[in-house]
Amino acid sequence: MPDVEIKETIDSLLKLVSLYAPKTDLELVRLAYDFAFDAHKDQIRKTGEPYIEHPLAVAHILAEMRIDPVIVTAALLHDVPEDTEVTLEEIEKNFGSEIAGLIAGITKLGKLKYRGVERYIENLRKMFVAMAEDVRVIIIKFADRIHNLQTLDALPPQKQYRIALESLEIYAPIANRLGMDEMKSQLEDLSFRYVYPKEYQRIKNLRDEKIKGMECYLPEIINKATNEFKKAGITINEIYGRNKCLYSFYRKLTRKNNDANSVYDLVAVRIIVPTVADCYATLGILHNIWKPVKGRIKDYISQPKPNGYRSLHTTVFSETGKIVEFQIRTEKFNDEAQFGVAAYWHYDQEGAHMPRKEVRWITELAELQKDILHKLSDLEEIKVDFLQSRIFVFTPKGDVIDLPEGAVPVDFAYHIHTDIGNKCTGAKINEKMVSLDTELKNGDVIEIIMDKNRKGPSQDWLKFTKTHTARSRIKAAQKKSLTGWLRAVLPKK
Ligand code: MN
Q: Which of 15, 285, 361, 461 stands the most exposed, by the fewest C-beta atoms within 10 Å?
């Protein structure tokens, strides 16, 4: 078959959306497309295509994941305020505050002014703030990055490398932490080729060769298992072989001293069943047919992975001595495993929606951020205070404020406004009164109590404040009051 690229169009997008979310206002999606088309009409991508192809492709990536049409609509508009004359206000007027809010989030992530390591940290910081505000922004950003990676060949090699490296080291680990396996794998495999071209080729050849070998015996194994399930009266929704993503194969090989024979899950057989009870029954039948490999039975259903992953894994010796891994899960677990946090906005039969803000992710993400920063701290050119770990806290209205680790309510108060700092007399963390030197933690909601008659900050605050802003304001207030005092006591000329 000739190499024909099927062009994505607004009609193919509308069709896709109407299939999984039949109640969608398709007119609004089309309107967003027309709006973006007009706004970008004079722009050409580096690939030589009209710019609109990009937001359209991003929207398709999300629609293929059966994501909430609101997010798909926002994806069509995602580059409008950043790259054109059209403002966010105009988007809000036409599409409402929810979509405008998402686009504001994407725009904030926008361009980064830093270079080198500082750019890296700044990028990370922005991603975390955006995520804490609304995880949906990151879902769009990942789809945006996937399409940029798919069309990376159009850019100069230096830029290719930078974008791919950033995707591999920042985007993919975040996607992983959010349980978004599908996007994580795409981000990794698309970047791998540009960051380690030689290794990519070597690993790809190795994998293709191994998969070819497995093609002789895998269908037989699937057949045998299917027959046994039928005999036992277990319904199987789906059973299929799933290739491991190239980059995780590479990482595993590196850990196993390059011994490809000790990587058992290069192709795993995935079994989807209706209920949790069926998962365990299926596992029992597999172990009845084949002997399990010791230490390779994993029950991620009763003990899910930290990112929420739920599945049963087992590895067995088949008749021919070949070793095969099975992954058993329900439809719901499978959706969650592929889409992670995005599964909340994933359309199923009920079209259910989850809350917009998932504060519990923030603690999870702060951990990841520490990991990444820790890795970075080996690089000598890093400025220490720039690297300081950050925490993310909220105002009572839900705005996100990022502060250095160890910050206290006074830091928070000065971060918001000098007056709030100067007049601050107390604070509540998560609705409980606390002292002003209490250390803030990720996800805390902070309310500052002010006394408008208060003259100024206490010099004692310098003992526990962490931010430069707070400390310099407190010192400035001291100087001011000293000059005032001097003026009062010195004799007038
Ligand atoms: Mn974009």
A: 15
Q: Is 82 a catalytic residue?
A: yes
Shared domain check, 276 and 129: no
- Indicate if 83 belongs to the active site: yes
DSSP E strands: which ranges in 35-170? Answer: none
Is residue 393 included in any domain, yes or no?
A: yes
Encoded amino acid at 392, one letter: F
Choose between 25 and 129: higher pLDDT: 25
Q: What is the pTM of this model?
A: 0.74
In a domain, 384, yes or no: no
Span from the CA of 147 to the centroid of ligand 1 (angstroms): 8
Q: Are 166 and 195 in contact (CB under 8 A)?
A: no
Q: How confident is the model at residue 362 (pLDDT cuts 50, 70, 90)?
A: low
Q: Which domain, by its residues, includes 24?
A: 10-195
Whether residue 379 is contained in a domain is answered as no
Question: What is the mean predicted confidence (pLDDT) over 198-210?
Answer: 91
Question: Smallest Cα–Cα separation from 421: which of 484, 342, 475?
Answer: 475
The residue from 176, 195, 214 where one domain ends is 195
Report the number of distinct structural domains present in the chain. 3
Residues 20 and 102 in one domain: yes
Exposure on the CB side of residue 255, measured as CA atoms within 13 A: 8
Across 99-108, 172-181, 286-295, 309-318, least confident range: 172-181
pLDDT score recorded for residue 363: 59
Distance between Cα 142 and ligand 1 center (Å): 10
List the CATH number of the domain containing 308.
3.30.460.10
Is the same domain home to 185 and 236?
no
Which of 8, 82, 98, 299 is flagged as catalytic?
82
CA distances to 22, 47, 59, 193, 401 from 37, rounded to whole Å, are 24, 17, 13, 32, 35
Q: 334 and 242, same structural domain?
A: yes
Is residue 46 a part of any domain in this protein? yes
What is the secondary structure of 294-347 as a DSSP string?
TT--EETTTS--TT----EEEEEE-TTS-EEEEEEEEHHHHHHHHHGGGGGGB-
